[in-house]
Design brief:
Length: about 350
């Protein structure tokens, strides 16, 4: 958990905003709350970790969320006017969103390649055409199309998908000539599949989707709701081919892609440097056909990166992971209420 930076450290897009003074005032309300929490903890000696997380989530949203329109969020904070409990309740709403986001990804089953054991195609072009046959969008279809777009390899490490190789002689010869590495790959969704608007009302997935759209609406992204209607969650702009460990790190918001000045080139960043060891510092996404096989959306990747950064710097990410680990190790909730936090997490999931 990292203390909120001073107001003059807000990003340039905030400092240059027409309403920058109002935004700065709202941000300072978060910093004032942070100081009050620190003072109360020092005076009472009681831990206030959850309150500090709620406060810092609000503060770091100013720094990292790529808002199309930040003013609804700003005015929500200004309207609260520094009322401690009201600000903390707002921060708790965002915290609960992160809980559901972590749980949504934790329970997902990655889509891997599924091909017959015998080689079906000798020519790579024939296999590609077969994989691009028009079909309803589904996780399986998205996996196949993403593989074609990403060159049958992890878009970052360039590890070739071994099942695709066994399915095509020409691809096998290409990998052999390059002395390429082979392994498993997963179809990784940027926005989780539980974002799908056509999910059962009242379900866990519906509660997650509702909280997601409420937050995106606050930052000017209400139009994204239409982009993810029904099976559109499996659109190519929302998926990328990654090898299993990167898939896991990306899903758990421990690795993210930060946009650079060069189009479709991203810097790989992480909560801990160990996740980046022996991995490329940058990844450049490319496609053989931009119309038929569009690249991952910079907007979707930017929102994912923002969620990862806010969760990391506020301390919410590590706190939630700690609770999830305890939930894995605890099957029976303590009757004395000692596992109340686990029960709360279970209720949110």
């Amino acid at each position: 958990m990292t203390a909120l930076p001073p107001v003059d450290a807000l990003p340039s897009r905030i400092r240059q905003h027409p309403h920058h003074l109002e935004i700065a005032s709202a941000y300072n309300l978060c910093r004032d709350l942070e100081l009050r929490i620190q003072h109360d903890e020092a005076a009472s000696g009681k831990k206030t970790e959850k309150e500090m997380i709620y406060c810092r989530i609000l503060g770091y949203l100013f720094h990292h969320f790529p808002a199309l329109n930040i003013m609804p969020f700003v005015r929500e904070i200004v309207t609260i006017n520094g009322q401690r409990q009201d600000l903390l309740r707002l921060g708790e709403c965002y915290y609960n969103f992160f809980v559901r986001l972590f749980k949504a990804n934790e329970g997902s089953t990655p889509v891997t390649s599924s091909y017959p054991s015998r080689r079906s195609f000798d020519r790579l072009a024939d296999m590609i055409e077969n994989m691009l046959q028009e079909a309803p969008q589904s996780p399986q279809t998205a996996k196949k199309r993403a593989l074609v777009r990403d060159g049958f390899q992890c878009a970052v490490t360039k590890i070739y998908d071994w099942k695709s190789i066994l399915n095509n002689k020409e691809l096998e010869m290409k990998v052999m000539s390059e002395a390429g590495r082979t392994g498993s790959t997963h179809c990784t969704h940027i926005f989780p599949e539980s974002t799908d608007a056509n999910i059962t009302a009242g379900s866990d997935e519906a509660r997650y989707a509702t909280s997601l759209w409420a937050i995106l609406d606050r930052f000017g992204y209400s139009a994204l709701r239409e982009e993810f209607n029904g099976s559109n969650i499996n659109r190519l702009e929302n998926v990328v081919t990654l090898e299993p460990s990167l898939h896991s790190f990306f899903d758990s918001l421990q690795v993210w892609f930060t946009e650079t000045e060069e189009p479709n080139r991203y810097k790989l960043e992480a909560t801990h440097d160990i996740f980046l060891v022996q991995r490329p510092k940058y990844a450049t996404f490319s496609t053989p056909n931009p119309q038929r096989l569009p690249l991952p959306s910079p907007t979707y990747l930017a929102i994912h990166a923002a969620c990862a950064k806010v969760a990391h710097f506020s301390g919410a990410g590590e706190y939630i992971r700690k609770i999830l680990r305890r939930m894995e190790d605890t099957r029976v909730l303590a009757e004395d209420g000692g596992s109340a936090e686990l029960l709360h997490m279970a209720m949110l999931s």
